[in-house]
Design a protein that fits this description.
Shape of chain B: elongated
Helix content of chain B: 55-70%
Order of helices and strands of chain A: EHEHEEHHHEHHEEEEHEEHEHHEEEHEEH
Largest interface: A-B, 42 and 40 residues
Order of helices and strands of chain B: HHHHHHHHH
Number of strands of chain B: 0
Helix content of chain A: 10-25%
Oligomer: heterodimer
Number of helices of chain A: 13
Radius of gyration of chain B: 18 Å
Largest sheet of chain B: none
Strand content of chain A: 15-25%
Radius of gyration of chain A: 23 Å
Number of strands of chain A: 17
Structural class of chain A: alpha/beta
Number of domains of chain B: 2
Strand content of chain B: under 5%
Structural class of chain B: mainly alpha
Chain lengths: 556, 176
């Protein structure tokens, strides 16, 4: 791998190596630019993926060396419901390894539908929310979805329905098996007249780009993939960036500031070299790409205060960190007579698409969601959570545990969430992480509308499980999310510098050589399946950036 | 860990090697000691081990099918407390002392089964009980290499097949 000296001014520093950072690194390196990718985490099993563990205990208690997801005890964060509360310790985490969250994610890869890009114009806004049109239309982004699907490797159904975004090219791979959960939901769908399809997943089902197909091992969501079938950034994108000889991935490099000169241009990044006593290193760059995820990106901008940017970098609008959407769910579970054996294969079985569209008049709330079928997973997790309606230990526990084993089907739903200005991430004024940097503080309470949405999907889940023939059904409590994966919206793109952080090409309104692209870019949240859209936005951003750099529109 | 591996370790490392192994290879040491059946533990004293073993046997009892005793969960817990769960040592030390006080100095393991259940029910909400409960279940259902789930007893009971890969159909409902 190419190595750069930090004092050498590279063309691009890309902060983050996940869904967006991987795309940016690959496209910029292929175009011939010098690129350093800054990754807070370690290598994981990059390049020797067979070493990712399938052992549940080792995966749950990883050593420092094997960590794939950030540890909230170190990457401390705090949570509060609203600005009047004092924040308490939070459990928010994020993919913290080469490849970011894509190394361990569930890999659902749905496109946003065309009308999810102009919901304000199409359905109107709602008082107290920040529902707005995107500065990009579906037609503009469609070619980049296609490019992402084919370069990254996506499997999915090729079905024509208004419930799936129109595609100029079918998915490169056949869908994953429907599993027993999918078969049961199909049965319910026939009775209830619902549209059900296999999941769309960044998991390949036939050999592609030197990677082998999914072997349905079941050590899936939350684990690194041993066979490289999951199309993570670490296997589908970064190796191609590195192979150009133009790209260095610098691990254990925790960026604490994007630095600027007197004219307000970014000059590079200051980072902590985590394996060398956290010594500070400055990497000089002509242009900075920020793809650190929906919470780390705004946090870094807010930490990058200077005389010129006292509110934090790229924050003249004051909305960096605001309009946070963390992703609501909720559903129901049911028990069946015979084993589903859902621990085999990818976690997600099938998707119910019928409630994806908006139906404000019909349902009395704004938004929609995608329902997914899945079951009980790994043995330890099952034992710890325990069987339904049974004691938590003793003979009764054991009896129910054995009786219910592998017989559970759970509807897990991915539900829209309205962007609200007061839902946000910022810097905790008191708490620091173990590196001495201000802890991330999450402030969020979903809009009343979104609680109605969750109620709706919980009720629909119960209905589906009963129609599928479950002999026992129980519903989740209505509860909105406090953080975790799928954070979006915190550096929204837009045409107006007063109400957005970056323009439609992801260039920060305030800093000409800073580009911000990741989950934070999303204006509205879609149906809480963000990754494919993040990938497509990154391909589009990279395309623009390469052209701009070549024509001198970005000074390289 | 397979039986042949256990036996290999036992025969390869006699008493003189044990100190080095304790420092350098705790997982293997514990497994070896377990196979020796000496009742020697890495973290627990023999009395403590007997009490925790009795607790585990109430949490996941042996009846018509094997339980925590047969799955050798005690060795899982003993090993856990010197590896990934080192931070739980205090909870055990304090919890075992409190348990002893509660039973008026009688060893928990020496109580009748109904006395044991009553005692555990009275401490159900304590961090100590919750930790032993979770460790017992983890010892039942984590891979045998961690000391419990002996001969995959736990996995067999809940129908978990630890094959490295599968082909659809997976269950009863996706069969063609």
């Amino acid at each position: 791998m190419k190595k750069y000296n930090p004092t050498e001014e590279v063309d691009f520093v890309v902060i983050g190596s996940g869904a967006a950072g991987g795309v940016m690194a690959k496209q910029l390196a292929l175009a011939g630019f010098s690129v350093v990718v800054m990754e807070q985490g370690n290598w994981g099993a990059y390049g020797h993926e067979q070493d990712y563990t399938k052992d549940e205990l080792s995966n749950r208690f990883p050593t420092e060396q094997d960590l794939l997801i950030s540890d909230p005890k170190k990457h401390r964060n705090t949570f509060r419901r609203n600005a009047n509360e004092k924040a308490v310790a939070g459990n928010h985490n994020f993919g913290c390894v080469v490849g970011g969250g894509t190394v361990t994610y569930g890999a659902s890869s749905w496109r946003h539908l065309p009308w999810e890009f102009d919901e304000a114009s199409r359905f109107g806004t709602m008082k107290g929310t920040g529902i707005a049109d995107w500065p990009v239309s579906y037609d503009e982004i469609e070619p980049y979805y296609t490019q992402a699907e084919w370069e990254i490797g996506i499997s999915g159904p090729n079905v024509k329905t208004p419930l799936i975004a129109p595609m100029s090219k079918p998915y490169p791979c056949q869908p994953l098996p429907m599993k027993s959960s999918g078969a049961l939901v199909m049965k319910a769908a026939q009775k209830l007249n619902l549209t059900v399809t296999p999941n769309v997943a960044a998991i390949i089902t036939e050999p592609m780009n030197g990677r082998s197909a999914c072997i349905n091992c079941g050590a899936c969501s939350g684990y690194g993939c041993q066979t490289k079938a999951r199309s993570s950034s670490a296997v589908a994108l970064l190796p191609f960036a590195v192979a150009t000889g133009n790209c260095e991935i610098r691990v254990n490099s925790y960026v604490r500031e994007i630095t600027v000169d007197a004219s307000g241009r970014a000059t590079g990044v200051t980072y902590l070299d985590k394996v060398n006593n956290n010594r500070e290193v400055f990497q000089k760059a002509k242009c900075v790409v920020l793809s650190a995820n929906g919470t780390e990106t705004p946090r870094l901008l807010l930490m990058s205060k200077s005389n010129r940017f006292p509110q934090g970098l790229a924050n003249s609008s004051g909305i960096v960190g605001k309009y946070l959407m963390v992703g609501n769910g909720g559903g129901a579970s049911g028990l069946f007579d015979d084993p589903l054996n859902e621990y085999k294969g990818c976690v997600t079985g099938a998707a119910v698409l019928s409630y994806v569209p908006n139906d404000v008049k019909g349902r009395g709330w704004y938004g929609g969601g995608r329902m997914t079928a899945r079951g009980q997973m790994s043995p330890m997790q099952y034992g710890l959570a325990g069987p339904h309606g049974a004691p938590s230990w003793g003979a009764g526990y054991k009896k129910a545990l054995i009786e219910q084993a592998n017989r559970r089907l759970t509807m897990v739903n991915f539900i829209s969430q309205l962007p609200i200005e007061t839902n946000m991430v910022d810097l905790d004024p008191e708490v620091k992480d173990v590196w001495g940097l201000p802890a991330l503080r999450i402030t969020t309470t979903s809009h009343e509308n979104d609680f109605k949405a969750m109620r709706f999907f919980i009720d629909k889940s119960v209905e589906i499980l009963k129609a599928a023939g479950a002999h026992t059904v129980w519903a989740d409590q209505v509860n909105d999310s406090r953080g975790g994966s799928h954070a979006r919206g915190t550096c929204r793109i837009g045409n107006d510098p007063k109400s957005s952080v970056a323009n439609k090409y992801h260039r920060a309104h305030d800093v000409p050589n800073l580009f911000i692209v990741d989950g934070s870019s999303l204006v509205t949240g879609g149906r809480n399946h963000p990754t494919m859209t993040i990938s497509a936005l990154a391909y589009r951003c990279a395309d623009h950036l390469v052209k701009a750099a070549r024509t001198g529109n970005v000074t390289i | 860990m397979s039986d042949s591996r256990r036996n290999f370790l036992v025969s390869s490392f006699g008493a003189s090697g044990a100190a080095w192994l304790t420092a350098n290879w705790p997982a293997q040491v514990a497994a070896a000691e377990k196979a020796q059946g000496l009742g020697a533990f890495t973290y627990f004293t023999r009395e403590q081990a007997a009490d925790v073993d009795a607790m585990a046997a109430q949490i996941y009892p042996s009846d018509a099918t094997p339980g925590a005793k047969e799955a050798q969960v005690i060795y899982f817990i003993d090993l856990a407390l010197v590896t990934f769960a080192q931070d739980k040592q205090d909870i055990y030390a304090k919890g075992l002392a409190e348990l002893s006080a509660k039973t008026g100095g009688r060893r928990f393991a020496s109580l009748s089964s109904s006395e044991q259940i009553a005692t555990l029910t009275s401490i159900e909400a304590t961090p100590f009980f919750k930790t032993v409960r979770d460790h017992t279940i983890m010892g039942m259902f984590s891979a045998p290499q961690h000391g419990g789930n002996y001969k995959k007893i736990g996995w067999t009971q809940i129908g978990f097949d630890d094959s490295l890969n599968f082909r659809a159909p997976f269950g009863a409902y996706d069969k063609a």
